[in-house]
Amino acid sequence: MTKRNNDNRPIEEILKEFVETNNLQAGLDKVNVREAWANLMGNGVNNYTTAIELKHETLYVQLSSSVLREELSYGTEKIISMLNESIGKDLVKKLVLR
Fold it and tell me: Strand order in 94-97's β-sheet?
């Protein structure tokens, strides 16, 4: 009978280690930022959001409404801080609305 490596670590710790070992954090960050955008902006904005892409520390959001783009452009700093707070780390440094 083989001895199992059972040191009773919490699943969160094991998953974190797995993510780091397999370089999955960048992919998870992209998913997390999309979810954070959807949750924070609500259906009104999400209906006009056609693409969301995180490149390095810049979040590119494509909107199908120029009026909405203009409106959101006045609050980019607040949006960035709300997104980062929702994600739980300073992931987004710049927001580009297209």
Answer: 49-55, 58-63, 94-97
pLDDT digits (tens, 9 = 90+) for 25-49: 888 999 999 999 999 999 999 999 9
With beta carbons less than 8 A apart as the criterion, state whether 49 and 41 touch: yes
Cα gap 68→57, rounded to integer Å = 23
- Token code pair at residue 69: 């783009």
Residue 35 is inside which H or E element, if any? helix 25-46
Identity of the residue numbered 26 = A
DSSP category for residue 85 = H
Packing angle, helices 11-21 and 25-46, rounded to 10: 100
User: Whole-model pTM?
Assistant: 0.78
Residue 61 per-residue DSSP state: E
